[in-house]
Specification:
The protein is of the alpha/beta class. The chain folds into 2 domains: 6-175, Rossmann fold (3-Layer(aba) Sandwich), CATH 3.40.50.10940; 179-493, no CATH class. The protein contains 15 helices and 19 strands. Strand 9, helix 11 (287-294) and strand 10 (298-300) form a beta-alpha-beta unit. Helix 6 (156-175) crosses helix 14 (454-464) and helix 10 (246-266) crosses helix 11 (287-294). It is elongated. Residues 9-175 form the L-arabinose isomerase N-terminal domain.
C-alpha cells in the first residue's frame, strides 16, 4: 500500500454567513473567498491545496458540509472564516459532528478601511472583526479543539502559520492510519520502550503488532540475487563506498529488500527490531534501516515502537521540506564549562537525510549482539536549528516532550567512532535541558528534526488530545514543575 502524497491532501475553506444580507452580498462573499483561495494557492507557501467549499448560511448546510468532510479521504481538515456575521448557534450540530482537524482563520478580505468609500453596505459585507468573535465563542463554549490563526490573509506570516498547521493536520490524519511492525519484542528489562499499545491505538490510531523474527528470515531467504543487485545499484547512486567488503553490503541490501517487502505487504510505515532478537540473521540491519528511513519509514531501536511511529509521522508532516528528520539517541556529553554539548548517535541506525554530504558505506565490528560486523552509513549531521521530540507513556496518557536545540559541527574528528553522529547544544543549556528533560520523563530515544517546529508538534498534540511539554531557552525548573503538577491534576480529573 503506497502512502498518499502529502500534496494531494486538500483543506476545505468554509465561509460563514446567513441569508440576512441578501443575494448580492452573498455573491460578493463567495467571490472574495474564491479570490483568497486562488491567491493563497498561487503563493506556493501552502503544502496542500486549499479548496473553497461553500458559504454556509444555515445549520443544515453546515451539518452537511461537516459530514461530507468527515467521509472525504482527501480532506485533511476545515479552515473556517466568517466574512459576515454567522450566528454561531447554527454551528453547534456541525462542530459536534466534526471529526477532521479544524482551524479558524481570523482575517478580512480588505487590508485597510476605505476612507471615502466606506458605507453601511461595506460594513454589512465586511464583518469579520465581530463575526469571527461570535464563531470563536461557540468553539470555546463547546471545548472544540481548533487552531486559531490571525492576521491579513495575503501576508506570508499568516500563510506560513496555515502551512504549518496543515502539516500538523496531515500528521493527525496519517496517525489514524499508521501501522507499526515489531520484528520481535523490545530489549529486555528496558522501561521506556514499553507502553500501552491498546491505549495508544485508541488515542492516536497506531496499530502496533508483532511478527516473529523467523517471519522476516523467511522473507529474507526468498530475496533473489537480481533484487539484491538492484538495491546495490541504488546504494552506488546514493552513497560513497568506503569498503571493499561487498558481501557484507550485499547482505544489508538483502535485508532491506526483505524488510521493504514485508512492510509494504502489511501497509506499515514504521518498524522496530533489537540486537537481542536476530535469530539466524547474520547482521543487525544497519545500512538497510538507514536507507529505509531515508525513504520515509520510521525506525525505533531496541523495539521502541513509540519513537518509530513518531519518526514516521514527523517525516510525513515535514515531507518536502528537505533539511532532514531521523531517529536519534543521546549517547555521551562534552562537559567543557561554557561549551557543553551532547553527542547523539546510535549503534547504526541514523537517517542520512540529516547530512548535506554523501554518506559513506563502511563495515565495522558492532561490539554487542554476537553477529557479523554490519555495513552502515557514516556521516555528520549538518549544523542548524533543530528539535528533539520524545513520546513517552505516562500511564493512562502519553506525553510529547520537545526540546529546541542547535546542531553544531562536531568539535572532534572521532576517527575510531564509525557511526553517524550529531553534536548539539540544547536550550537553555546542556545541564538545564537535561534536568528538564528528565523531570518530564523524556526517553533516551527521540526524533531529531531540522524541519519540524515546536508549534507544528504542539498543534499535532492539540488535535490528537495529548499532553505537550516544550523545553526552550525560557523554560525553568520551577515553571516546568508547576506545569507538570497542573497537568497531572488535569489528566486525573479527566
Amino acid at each position: 500500500m503506497q502512502r498518499q502524497p502529502l500534496a494531494t491532501y486538500e483543506f476545505w475553506f468554509v465561509v460563514g454567513s446567513q441569508f440576512l444580507y441578501g443575494k448580492e452580498t452573498l455573491e460578493q462573499v463567495a467571490k472574495h473567498a474564491q479570490v483568497m483561495v486562488e491567491n493563497m494557492n498561487a503563493s506556493s507557501l501552502l503544502p496542500c491545496k486549499l479548496v473553497y467549499k461553500a458559504t454556509v448560511k444555515t445549520p443544515e448546510e453546515i451539518e452537511q458540509c461537516v459530514k461530507d468532510a468527515n467521509y472525504d479521504d482527501n480532506c485533511a481538515g476545515l479552515i473556517t472564516w466568517m466574512h459576515t456575521f454567522s450566528p454561531s448557534k447554527m454551528w453547534i450540530r456541525g462542530l459536534d459532528l466534526l471529526q477532521k482537524p479544524y482551524c479558524h482563520l481570523h482575517t478580512q478580505f480588505n487590508r485597510t478601511i476605505p476612507d471615502t468609500e466606506i458605507d453601511m453596505d461595506f460594513m454589512n459585507l465586511n464583518q469579520s472583526a465581530h463575526g469571527d468573535r461570535e464563531h470563536a465563542f461557540i468553539a470555546a463554549r463547546m471545548h472544540t479543539k481548533r487552531k486559531i490563526v490571525t492576521g491579513f490573509w495575503e501576508d506570508a506570516s499568516v500563510q506560513l502559520k496555515l502551512a504549518s498547521w496543515m502539516r500538523s493536520a496531515v500528521g493527525a490524519i496519517e496517525s489514524r492510519k499508521l501501522k507499526v511492525v515489531r520484528f520481535g519484542d523490545n530489549m529486555r528489562n528496558v522501561a521506556v520502550t514499553e507502553g500501552d499499545k491498546v491505549g495508544v491505538q485508541m488515542q492516536l490510531g497506531w496499530q502496533v503488532n508483532t511478527w516473529g523474527v523467523g517471519d522476516l528470515i523467511r522473507e529474507l531467504d526468498q530475496v533473489s540475487e537480481a533484487e539484491v543487485q538492484a538495491q546495490m545499484d541504488i546504494y552506488q547512486n546514493r552513497y560513497v563506498f568506503a569498503t571493499k567488503d561487498m558481501e557484507t553490503v550485499r547482505y544489508q541490501a538483502r535485508e532491506e529488500v526483505a524488510m521493504r517487502k514485508f512492510l509494504q505487504r502489511e501497509g506499515a510505515y514504521a518498524y522496530t527490531n533489537t540486537f537481542e532478537d536476530l535469530q539466524q540473521m547474520r547482521q543487525l540491519p544497519g545500512l538497510a534501516s538507514q536507507d529505509l528511513m531515508a525513504e520515509g519509514y520510521g525506525y525505533g531501536g531496541e523495539g521502541d515502537w513509540k519513537v518509530s511511529a513518531m519518526t514516521s509521522l514527523v517525516k510525513r508532516m515535514t515531507e518536502g521540506m528537505g533539511k532532514g528528520t531521523t531517529f536519534m539517541e543521546d549517547y555521551t556529553y562534552h562537559m567543557e564549562k561554557g561549551n557543553e554539548l551532547s553527542l547523539g548517535a546510535h549503534m547504526l541506525e541514523i537517517c542520512p537525510s540529516i547530512t548535506t554530504d554523501k554518506a559513506h558505506i563502511e563495515v565495522h565490528e558492532l561490539g554487542i549482539g554476537g553477529k557479523e560486523p554490519p555495513a552502515r552509513l557514516v556521516f555528520e549531521g549538518h549544523p542548524g536549528k533543530a528539535l528533539l521530540a520524545s513520546l513517552v507513556d505516562m500511564g493512562g496518557r502519553v506525553r510529547l516532550i520537545v526540546n529546541e536545540i542547535e546542531v553544531v559541527k562536531p568539535i572532534y574528528r572521532m576517527p575510531n567512532l564509525p557511526v553517524a553522529r550529531v553534536m548539539w547544544k540544547p536550550e537553555p543549556d546542556l545541564n538545564q535541558a537535561s534536568h528538564l528533560w528528565m523531570l518530564s520523563g523524556g526517553a533516551h530515544h527521540a526524533v531529531l528534526s531540522y524541519d519540524a517546529t515546536a508549534e507544528m508538534l504542539e498543534d499535532w498534540c492539540e488535535i490528537m488530545g495529548i499532553e505537550f511539554v516544550h523545553i526552550n531557552s525560557r523554560t525553568t525548573v520551577e515553571s516546568l514543575k508547576m506545569q507538570l503538577f497542573l497537568s497531572d491534576l488535569a489528566w486525573k480529573l479527566r
